[in-house]
From TrEMBL, chains A, B:
Pfam families: FA_synthesis. Homodimer. Probably interacts with PlsY. InterPro entries: FA_synthesis, Phospholipid_synth_PlsX-like. The keyword Acyltransferase applies. SUPFAM superfamilies: Isocitrate/Isopropylmalate dehydrogenase-like. The gene is plsX. This is Phosphate acyltransferase. Keywords: Acyltransferase, Cytoplasm, Lipid biosynthesis, Lipid metabolism, Phospholipid biosynthesis, Phospholipid metabolism, Transferase. It catalyses: a fatty acyl-[ACP] + phosphate = an acyl phosphate + holo-[ACP]. It is an enzyme of class 2 (transferase). The keyword DNA damage does not apply. Its EC number is 2.3.1.274. Belongs to the PlsX family. Catalyzes the reversible formation of acyl-phosphate (acyl-PO(4)) from acyl-[acyl-carrier-protein] (acyl-ACP). This enzyme utilizes acyl-ACP as fatty acyl donor, but not acyl-CoA.
Amino acid sequence: MIRIAVDAMGGDYAPGEMVAGAVDAANDRPDIRIALVGRQEEVLAELSKFTYNKEQIEVVNATEVIATEEPPVNAIRKKKDSSMVVALNMVKNGEADAFVSAGSSGAILVGGQVIVGRIKGVERPPLAPLIPTEKGVSILIDCGANVDARPSHLVQFAQMGSIYMEHVVGIKNPRVAIVNIGAEEEKGNALVKETFPLLKACPDINFIGSIEAREIPHGGADVIVCEAFVGNVILKLYEGVGATLLGMVKKGMMSDLRSKIGALLVKPALKRTLKSFDASQYGGAPLLGLKGLVVKTHGNSKRLEVHNSIIQCVTFKEQQINEKIRASLGTE
Amino acid sequence: MIRIAVDAMGGDYAPGEMVAGAVDAANDRPDIRIALVGRQEEVLAELSKFTYNKEQIEVVNATEVIATEEPPVNAIRKKKDSSMVVALNMVKNGEADAFVSAGSSGAILVGGQVIVGRIKGVERPPLAPLIPTEKGVSILIDCGANVDARPSHLVQFAQMGSIYMEHVVGIKNPRVAIVNIGAEEEKGNALVKETFPLLKACPDINFIGSIEAREIPHGGADVIVCEAFVGNVILKLYEGVGATLLGMVKKGMMSDLRSKIGALLVKPALKRTLKSFDASQYGGAPLLGLKGLVVKTHGNSKRLEVHNSIIQCVTFKEQQINEKIRASLGTE
């Protein structure tokens, strides 16, 4: 029985889409239990719109909400009765196996580390979203949890990313590469140059060398290792270039009558093709290396993303990812 | 009279496309002189295919070629009779105002600094390509010349980028932003945090604060300041995501008969729209802050890009960009 605490109040479409996604996940997997954490009345009002097995979903009251713009450390410390702090405490106390939130990234990162805590031996817990590629999906690790990382952190990211890709995504012997500005070993900044030989010497990963950013969307590696600043730039630029280009394609198609007719004809095929480049189907970004599982879904997540993020937690738990991380990196 | 030395031997399509682009530029602007530098026989064979004013184009013999994979420092030092070294010496000796090459980036960066030399007062010469956005074009500075930059370098990048955007691209009072992982001033890694107040205090730029990578393709700023590693990642990911998405759009359109017919109808409008997102129309990337002008065009440049890069040099010279950089940053 896997138990997941969902932050009903975090995200642009909370609580409506958070509740809807949780109901979908419960209906999809009769073997899971979900705790919707947030303002009881609001959550119950949303829940009443759906049909579901009452034994699978409970509502846990939390009167406060952490807003996106609040300074994270302060918010986690002061808002003891916020949906986020209450849910994270459930993970800490073993009342839940995992926590899913579309709320403030900063608060999730701080709360995950401070309340749930790191596995002993893990130096820094990386935020590791899956990003779509031509060939499927890669994990981008780290993507915002720790700026100014050290080489030893990056090696651990590579190890945790490999475990995740192998056992959650199902890619055997995942190819690990470090983001670099050239393919040769002598290229790079000080961090990359120091990290490269450590990755090369690391026995439990399949290190294939450097990857240039150009090759990431082509699926050049399964585990894309970088420090958080670069990872954040990659993740956000992926979104930005994608949105801009697709917006221009749509605009171009609507520019005259001839192409409007053409657009009607190409639309279904195009939609099918581009679906594979849509990150939402892959769920949220796990914060790896914590004693429990914490998953951050995109702030604008709707029911599909929330549903997928919950199912992702189930796979994570079933595949005993934390046990594997502990075996590989732990010092207890 | 503006004189431009063109590396006839560098790039994937050299010498053919380099020569063709040079001829186009000469025919476009009767007031310029071009020196095609490279293996005389090969260059003359290409030149014989075109009609042009013989007074405008001369061939300067250089028997060696620097290959892309050669270690740059070594190549520049040893291959004294390479097209690149010969052409850079022409700039140094005042026989040419500018140098355009589609050859090895590393060799251009090293050669530019070592042979042409920096303007006194410029700490590091940044490589600054123009990147397309929804609204037009922005300059991305630095993009590969210097890794592990210091805050003072980034401030100079902002100043030089502003001068370029204002006088070469024609954007009045260009908006300068620093690439960051959040919009707030307190966000960022150590370099960004140190640089932010310096940019804020810099009187001769229009600093608007941080820019997240997501906003770059939307045209959120005119001068995008970052250190070279991040700039390189942005530039290459731009290419990679763009190529992957457009490839997928094309593939999607060819997937069944219905959409193939539609594709024929949308094609002209789509082509028109996407042309504005095509970097090649903007010419190459200048290496700013040198005593002469050095422009790196993409390795796969064809005649259009070469032509545009040469015209860009003309604008650079006419607008007296180096004089403006010297007045703003110079210490002589």
